[in-house]
What we know:
Rossmann fold, 8 strands, single chain, alpha/beta, disordered C terminus, binds magnesium ion, binds guanosine-5'-triphosphate, 434 Repressor (Amino-terminal Domain), 56% helix, Four Helix Bundle (Hemerythrin (Met), subunit A), elongated, 20 helices, eight-stranded mixed β-sheet
Amino acid sequence: MVLDKIGEGLRAALDKVTRAGLVDRSTIEGLVKDIQRTLLAGDVDVKLVFELTQKIKKRALDEKPKAGMTAREQVVRIVYEELVSFVGGKSEAKLRGKILLCGLFGSGKTTTAGKLARFYRKKGLKVGLICCDAFRPAAYEQLQTLAEQIGVPFFGIRGEKDSAKILKEGMKKIGERDIIIIDSSGRDALDSGMIEEIKNLNSISAADERLLVLPADIGQAAREQSEEFQKALGITGVIITKLDGTAKGGGALTACAISGAPVKFIGTGEKLEAFEQFDPERFISRLVGFGDLQSLLEKAKESGAEESAKAIVSGKFTLSEFFEQLEAMQKMGPLKSVLDSIPGFGMMKMPKEFDLGKQEGKMKKWKYIIQSMTKKEKESPDLIDSPRIRRIAKGSGTSESEVRELLKAFEQSKKVMKMVSGGKRGLMGKMMKRFKGFG
Ligand SMILES: Nc1nc2c(ncn2[C@@H]2O[C@H](COP(=O)(O)OP(=O)(O)OP(=O)(O)O)[C@@H](O)[C@H]2O)c(=O)[nH]1
Ligand SMILES: [Mg+2]
């Protein structure tokens, strides 16, 4: 996971709030201190940290919880919202046109050119790669290899020293493409020679996106670099690479956010697939352990259990749905990892009834028990009194205590879901609305 330390710190800080018997001024002050400590340790600028935590504190003290939301959920929601705006707004890269990559030596431009090509190709677009790095001897081979690996057309001129010439020819030869990605040469520093060259490549290509590639390990220096490139070239966004290998990622990310250049992608490893579009909401919710609803839904889609996932997340389900969900969720892999990816669960202790590992055998019995119920009983388990329990146990060949156990597990999971979701207006309800096609 990217930004492990920051994530851990924020989770621990929020965990304290969710465990606190009462959320009062001292709880909030403690939370603010914890967040400050965590972000400062993660190389985030002191002034920014202070501003952020002041905002959180003020809102947490002033704003009354909305209906259906506990004070605790309210505070967690405020922290979440402020963190999201802290790392900047969402800004998507264009899906058509030319992308010019720039950045200093070793920042990850060529690797990123490959990652971008793969990213767009996966979207079904026609992609082409042009190597305009006429500076570093092996640049041509490096990009060519990546292009072959991904299976996209590549253009370069081995040994050619004039990058403008390569680009002009490349644009003619690469053919009709939805996306053309242009790799450029790095320098030690943003010197005039480099600026001239990249400006020239920019005007020849009439690039739609000028993306600055910045390695996360430069930390807060990201701000200065992105401002310099902004002045020189008018960049349209930033790609932060190597977020996997540094404790300074928090600094780099937030520094970009305030430089005015939106972070559009992040690189999280050397491999081509270690790359994603930067989505502040998704990023923060994963970071602080709200899980990643989107990836839950993707997983759910793959296993055909989407409906079940939706129902369980919304906290509204009948007894038979409950069982279907358990069954469907089993197909999705260990239940725990699925539940972990539901917002709120990262921070909550699950009742042991949810521990499916111990219940493989139980599932079968529960199935028989539910099959022995009337339709009404399945819809309103409240109806099920002792005589009914006796009847159901007999009919399913189980014991009365087993029937009671199922009913209890059902009730408890409903309670947990209610707590987590807080209804439509709750933390989860809110978060879920952000995801298209949900609910
Ligand atoms: N861990 C990690 N390594 C990365 C990432 N992106 C790139 N790298 C590595 O960083 C090194 C430099 O990457 P390049 O893509 O060659 O960098 P460049 O900006 O093209 O370098 P020049 O062309 O010399 O300016 C390589 O070893 C890459 O494997 C990333 O997201 N995570
Ligand atoms: Mg390169």
